Amino acid sequence: MAFDPSSLKYDANGLIPVVTQDHSSHEVLMVAWMNADAVKKTLDGGKVTYWSRSRQKFWVKGETSGHVQTLVEMRVDCDRDCLLVLVDQTGPACHTNRRSCFFTSVNAEGETEIMKPMV
Amino acid sequence: MAFDPSSLKYDANGLIPVVTQDHSSHEVLMVAWMNADAVKKTLDGGKVTYWSRSRQKFWVKGETSGHVQTLVEMRVDCDRDCLLVLVDQTGPACHTNRRSCFFTSVNAEGETEIMKPMV
């Protein structure tokens, strides 16, 4: 039976959070959002496509930067309200040119930058 | 300078999404939510503590099941609107007794269970 993106649980804005992980290193690269159409585009075309909340339009990751994400596998969680995408990431995933958006470590004492920009 | 949980960006409900990753295997275990107090409790006590949206109260992970998550490291993303917690997970993270909540693989053709319950 074909997968139906509308079978996922979306929030009040019609969005579902998406965790993006490097399929080989298993590094968590970023978290962004998809609507049902973005889920379908990602599954059909293999280029990871989010919904940009700030620009209110589809965001084909890397379309302007070249830092594309090719889908390797999509997984849904037990509650059907979150996705995990395993990707082949070209270059940095973060707009700061770091490999991952999670480059700041936090503890009670403060914050530490743990990753430098790639380029 | 001490870390101030109120410096993070929370949604309209005062919550921030949290990706939970096994610190050694790098498996993504689950995604849940914290409010500023849950962030503080997690950093101060080292037991990962979420905010349960369904029960509207703190959720010390594993408090009843024993499947606790001990904090190894917390990271914040570039937009300060998402957290990544690296944890030492006792037993399964998922309420279905699977190690991870992401046990269902999805493609255009359908869904496949890729992980069995641990116990």
TrEMBL record, chains A, B:
An individual GO BP term: L-histidine biosynthetic process
PANTHER family, per database record: HISTIDINE BIOSYNTHESIS BIFUNCTIONAL PROTEIN, HISTIDINE BIOSYNTHESIS BIFUNCTIONAL PROTEIN HIS7
GO cellular component: cytoplasm
Signal peptide: none
Residues that bind Zn(2+): 78, 94, 101
Purpose: Catalyzes the hydrolysis of the adenine ring of phosphoribosyl-AMP.
UniProt keyword annotation of Metal-binding present: yes
Coiled coil segments of this chain: none
E.C. numbers: 3.5.4.19
Family named by the database record: In the C-terminal section; belongs to the PRA-PH family. Belongs to the PRA-CH family.
Protein name in the entry: Phosphoribosyl-AMP cyclohydrolase
InterPro entries cross-referenced by the UniProt entry: PRA-CH, PRib_AMP_CycHydrolase_dom, PRib_AMP_CycHydrolase_sf
Record flagged with keyword Transport: no
Cofactor(s) the protein needs: Zn(2+); Mg(2+)
Free-text remark on how the cofactor is bound: Binds 1 zinc ion per subunit.
Principal cellular location given in the protein's record: cytoplasm
Subunit composition and interactions: Homodimer.
Positions of the Phosphoribosyl-AMP cyclohydrolase domain: 30-103
Gene: hisI
